[in-house]
């Protein structure tokens, strides 16, 4: 099986004094904001693609094309254990009013959530910290509240013993190429125990366009593709590496031990 080349986050991007870690063994690069970033409308006009005709009828938040930021990546080979992910997860976002309308019985939860059987934790972070996160009662959706014009990042933490590949999407678009998201796309490699932030749609090996909350009409999905069907959702697909053992102890063994009862239940 041929090895596939994958972009690996190798640089450290600085925002408000905080750093995202590309994982042990990779040298950081100097990072700063690029001056004179391009917004969504300018980007769409230069692409020659027409936006959806009446997206303004839709309320709530979507993701626009923010200021360009330096975030260097390099190629590294990675062979997936399977063509299907070990697990997937989704976060739905909107403004506070939209969150209230979308959800029924909501409970405030921590900014990071577990996914893919505990292989990763992830969440959405704003300029001042993790955004307010809620979960519908029972096993419902996870909802995150944002504000228009605020930038955000996707925080990923590898809790396993092995390198993972994480394919991420925003508004149904792959964060690497800005096109329709799919499992077959390549993602970021996350080293064991490492935490890093995806800060925007990748524009080159050296930079990204920051994720920025916008209205639906000014979203990247509308201005670039004329399609707003999937705005308001962020997804991840987690792939393990061929030949690796992500857990020192198998997950089913952990689940069984966590559910052990000190007293036998009568049949």
Explained architecture:
- The protein has one domain (4-51, 60-243).
- Helix content is 11%, strand content 38%.
- The chain has helices at residues 40-47, 96-102, 220-225, 251-258, and strands at residues 4-9, 14-15, 18-19, 61-70, 73-78, 87-94, 106-109, 113-115, 120-126, 129-130, 133-136, 142-145, 151-158, 164-170, 173-174, 188-190, 195-198, 200-202, 207-215, 233-240.
- The strands form four sheets. Strands 4, 8, 9, 10, 13, 17, 18 and 19 form an eight-stranded antiparallel beta sheet that branches.
- A hairpin with a 2-residue loop joins strand 2 (14-15) and strand 3 (18-19).
- The chain starts with a strand and ends in a 9-residue tail after the last helix.
- Mean pLDDT is 81; it is low at 1-38.
User: How many helical elements?
Assistant: 4
Quote the distance from N terminus to C terminus.
Answer: 51 Å
Give the strand content.
35-45%
Could you tell me the radius of gyration in angstroms? 19 Å
Main beta sheet strand tally, sense and closure: 8 strands, antiparallel
Structural class: mainly beta
Let me know the average pLDDT.
81
**Total domain modules:** 1
Tally of strands: 20
Low-confidence regions: 1-38
Helix fraction, binned, reads 10-25%
User: What is the succession of H and E elements?
Assistant: EEEHEEEHEEEEEEEEEEEEEHEH
Shape: globular
